[in-house]
Amino acid sequence: MTDVSVPTDAARMVRELTDRAAVLDVVAAYATALDTRDWVSLRELFTDDAVCALGGSVGSPVGPDAIVEAISSILVPLDATQHLVGNSVVRLHGDDAGHTAYVQAQQVRRGTPGGDLYIVAGRYDDRLRRTADGWRFSYRGLTRMWTDGNRAVRYP
Questions:
Q1: What is the pLDDT of residue 10?
Q2: Closest CA to 142 of 92, 90, 97, 85
Q3: Distance between CA atoms of residues 7 and 70, nearest Å
Q4: What's the order of all strands across the beta sheet hosting 96-108?
Q5: For residues 115 and 149, what is the distance between their CA atoms, to the nearest angstrom?
Q6: What is each CA distance from 112 to 60, 61, 108, 145, 146, in whole angstroms?
Q7: Pick from 104, 131, 127, 121: which is nearest to 51 by CA?
Q8: 3-class DSSP state for residue 55?
Q9: How far apart are CA 36 and CA 55, in angstroms?
Q10: Helix or strand holding residue 40 (H, E)
Q11: Closest to 153 measured CA to CA, from 112, 119, 121, 104
């Protein structure tokens, strides 16, 4: 049997690529959980001390239960949403990571006078932490950059 050892640099690069992919999986899982109204999965994406600073009427809830309660109270009345996330940048620092990305959140409420669609666009600024269960958000912040459509969809 041949002993094949992986050079330290190669092992480090593999770990970095694996960590980056795992962070991006958490980001994608967040958008999917929102759009499918999967509150159990959404809760699992946050550390116990996580802060979700989304602003507006959501504020900055702390902890997975408060975060899910705040987000679900906004999304449940809507007929549909689609959260599109792009231009992700991941910065790894051992067991901590930073992530930034642009987001467009399309919100639909059928039959709303003035139109059924409202779009919020902005930037996510995140901190994630490696846990025994994988990468989790310890902080998720949203900076709103612009909106379009009928505000009454979101704020009846």
A1: 87
A2: 85
A3: 47
A4: 46-53, 134-149, 117-131, 96-108, 80-93
A5: 7
A6: 28, 29, 9, 24, 21
A7: 127
A8: strand
A9: 22
A10: helix 39-43
A11: 112
Structural element, H or E, at residue 156: none
pLDDT value at 5 more than 70:
no
The backbone torsions φ and ψ at residue 35, rounded to the nearest 5 degrees and listed phi first, read: -75, -25
Distance CA 38, CA 32 (A): 8
Residue located via tokens 């600024």:
125
Which two tokens mark 99?
């992530």
Give the DSSP H or E segment for 23.
helix 8-36
Query: Tokens 């001390």 correspond to what residue?
Result: 49
Beta bridge partners of 82: 106
Residue 136 vs residues 2, 49, 123, 142: alpha-carbon distances, Å: 39, 11, 18, 17
pLDDT 10s digits, 61-97: 999 999 999 999 999 999 999 999 999 999 999 999 9
Cβ count near 148 (within 10 Å): 12
